[in-house]
C-alpha cells in the first residue's frame, strides 16, 4: 500500500469489529478494533480484573520494556473507571515476584494470590515510528485476552493497532489516561504515548462494563497510574553510596534534612528511593512523618504488609498523628481486614474530624461491613467537609441504588459528576454520566442532569481541539 493510502487510512475513525457477532473488517480498514466478547463473560461477569505484565515481539522487532509497560498501564488506566475492582500494576508485580517461578504462568495460582477473579494478558505487537519519505506514522498495537483465573476460561479478546500520522491530531482530555504524557521526554515519546492511549482506550471500550459498584480506595477516585518514561533514563543512582557515607557523621537533624531534600529533588532517580527512605527511618529519633513517607512508598510499590508495619511505627512514635492511623486502616482494607481497619480509621477521624478523606474511609469501611446507614451518614459528613467530594457522592449513589431509592441515587450520581468535573477527574465524570443515562427512563427523567454533564464534557473536548 502506498504512503498516501496509509495516510488516508490513519485519518479515518477506528472501525469496531465484533467477532462474537460474526462481523468482518471492511477492506483496507487499517484502523480496525477487532474484539470478541465470549458468552461466559456476560453469563458471569468477573468482580475483579488484574492486568498482568505483557510480552513483546522477539528478535529485531523487540521493544524496550518501557514501551511494553506503557501499554499495560494505559489499559489499566482505562479499565479503572469500570464497575469492577481492579488491582494496581505495582501490586500485581509485587505478588508475582513472590510466587514460585514455576507457578507464575498458572492463572489459578495468580488469581488466588491476587484475590482476583479475572486476568488480562497478551502481547504488544509494535510501538514506534516509521518514516516514509515526507510522511511519518506512529503506531502502537496489541493483542490482549481476558481469562477467568480459575479454569482459564476465555472471557474477552481484543486486537488493535492505533496509529497517528505526521505527529497526530488533537485529542480530548476526557479520554486521556491522566498523567500519561508526564512521561514524555521528547516529541517522539509524546506521540507514541498518544497512540498508546488511543490503543488502550479503544480496546477497553469493547469490554462490557458490569454496572454500578462502589469505588474501592477511600484516598481518591480511581486514578490511572503514571506512565513510565519511554526513552532510557541516564543512570542516576551513581554517587548514592558516597552520599550516604557523607551523611554518617552529621547531626540527626541535618542528616534528615539532606535525605528529604535528595528524595524530593529525585537527586539519584527513582532507583534510589528505597535506600534513601531506609536511611531516613534509620536516623536517630526519626519522626512519624518519615515512617509515613516510607509507608506511602511501600504501598505504591504494592507491598501492603510492609507499608502497614511502617505506618504502625509512625503511630507508635506519635499516637496523635492522624495520617498514620488512616494509613494503617487503608492498608488493612487492602488486606481484607475491615474490622481492624475500622478501629484505625475511627482513631484518625477522632483526631481530625474535618478531614474528608478520613470520613470517606470511615464510610467505606462501614459499607464493607454491611452498615449502609452508617456509611451514608459518614459520606454526608465527608461531603459537608468537601463539597467537591466525588468519591462520597458516587458511593452514596451506589448504596442508595442498592436500597431501591433511584431518585436519591440519581441525585448522588449527578453530584458526583459535577464534583469530578470541578476536580478535573473527567473519566470519573464520564462514568457518572453513563450511570445517569442507565437510570434515566420512564418515571425518572434525568435529561437535564445528563445534558449538563454531557455539555460540560463536550465543551472541554472542543476546547482541547481549538488551535
Automatic annotation (TrEMBL):
GO cellular component: cell outer membrane
GO BP term (any one): receptor-mediated virion attachment to host cell
Chain coiled-coil ranges: none
SMART domains the UniProt entry points to: TPR
SUPFAM superfamilies: TPR-like
Keywords: Repeat, TPR repeat
Record carries keyword tRNA-binding: no
Stated name of the protein: Uncharacterized protein
Amino acid at each position: 500500500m502506498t504512503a498516501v493510502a496509509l495516510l488516508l487510512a490513519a485519518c479515518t475513525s477506528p472501525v469496531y469489529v465484533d467477532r462474537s457477532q460474526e462481523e468482518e473488517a471492511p477492506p483496507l480498514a487499517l484502523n480496525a478494533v477487532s474484539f470478541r466478547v465470549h458468552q461466559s463473560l456476560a453469563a458471569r461477569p468477573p468482580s475483579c480484573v488484574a492486568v498482568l505484565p505483557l510480552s513483546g515481539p522477539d528478535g529485531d522487532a523487540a521493544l524496550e520494556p518501557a514501551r511494553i509497560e506503557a501499554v499495560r498501564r494505559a489499559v489499566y488506566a482505562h479499565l479503572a473507571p469500570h464497575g469492577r475492582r481492579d488491582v494496581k500494576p505495582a501490586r500485581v508485580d509485587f505478588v508475582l515476584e513472590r510466587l514460585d517461578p514455576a507457578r507464575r504462568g498458572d492463572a489459578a495460582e495468580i488469581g488466588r494470590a491476587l484475590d482476583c477473579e479475572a486476568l488480562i494478558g497478551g502481547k504488544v505487537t509494535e510501538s514506534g515510528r516509521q518514516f516514509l519519505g515526507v510522511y511519518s506514522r506512529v503506531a502502537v498495537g496489541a493483542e490482549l485476552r481476558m481469562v477467568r483465573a480459575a479454569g482459564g476460561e476465555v472471557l474477552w479478546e481484543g486486537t488493535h493497532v492505533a496509529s497517528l500520522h505526521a505527529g497526530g491530531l488533537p485529542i480530548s482530555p476526557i479520554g486521556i489516561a491522566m498523567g500519561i504524557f508526564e512521561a514524555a521526554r521528547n516529541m517522539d515519546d509524546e506521540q507514541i504515548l498518544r497512540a498508546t492511549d488511543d490503543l488502550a482506550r479503544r480496546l477497553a471500550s469493547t469490554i462490557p462494563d458490569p454496572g454500578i459498584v462502589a469505588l474501592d480506595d477511600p484516598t481518591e477516585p480511581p486514578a490511572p497510574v503514571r506512565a513510565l518514561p519511554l526513552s532510557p533514563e541516564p543512570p542516576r543512582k551513581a554517587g548514592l553510596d558516597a552520599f550516604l557515607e557523607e551523611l554518617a557523621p552529621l547531626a540527626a537533624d541535618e542528616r534528615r534534612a539532606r535525605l528529604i531534600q535528595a528524595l524530593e529533588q529525585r537527586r539519584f532517580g527513582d532507583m534510589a528511593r528505597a535506600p534513601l527512605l531506609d536511611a531516613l527511618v534509620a536516623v536517630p529519633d526519626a519522626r512519624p512523618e518519615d515512617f509515613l513517607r516510607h509507608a506511602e512508598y511501600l504501598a505504591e510499590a504494592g507491598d501492603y504488609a510492609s507499608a502497614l508495619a511502617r505506618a504502625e511505627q509512625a503511630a507508635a512514635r506519635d499516637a496523635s498523628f492522624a495520617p498514620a492511623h488512616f494509613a494503617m486502616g487503608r492498608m488493612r482494607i487492602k488486606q481484607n481486614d475491615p474490622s481492624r481497619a475500622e478501629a484505625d480509621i475511627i482513631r484518625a477521624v477522632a483526631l481530625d474530624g474535618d478531614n474528608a478523606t478520613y470520613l470517606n474511609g470511615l464510610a467505606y469501611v462501614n459499607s464493607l461491613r454491611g452498615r449502609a446507614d452508617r456509611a451514608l451518614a459518614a459520606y454526608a459528613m465527608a461531603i459537608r467537609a468537601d463539597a467537591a467530594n466525588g468519591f462520597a457522592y458516587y458511593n452514596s449513589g451506589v448504596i442508595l441504588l442498592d436500597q431501591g431509592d433511584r431518585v436519591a441515587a440519581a441525585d448522588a450520581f449527578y453530584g458526583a459528576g459535577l464534583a469530578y468535573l470541578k476536580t478535573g477527574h473527567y473519566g470519573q465524570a464520564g462514568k457518572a454520566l453513563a450511570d445517569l443515562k442507565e437510570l434515566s427512563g420512564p418515571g425518572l427523567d434525568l435529561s437535564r442532569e445528563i445534558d449538563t454533564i454531557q455539555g460540560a464534557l463536550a465543551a472541554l473536548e472542543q476546547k482541547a481541539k481549538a488551535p
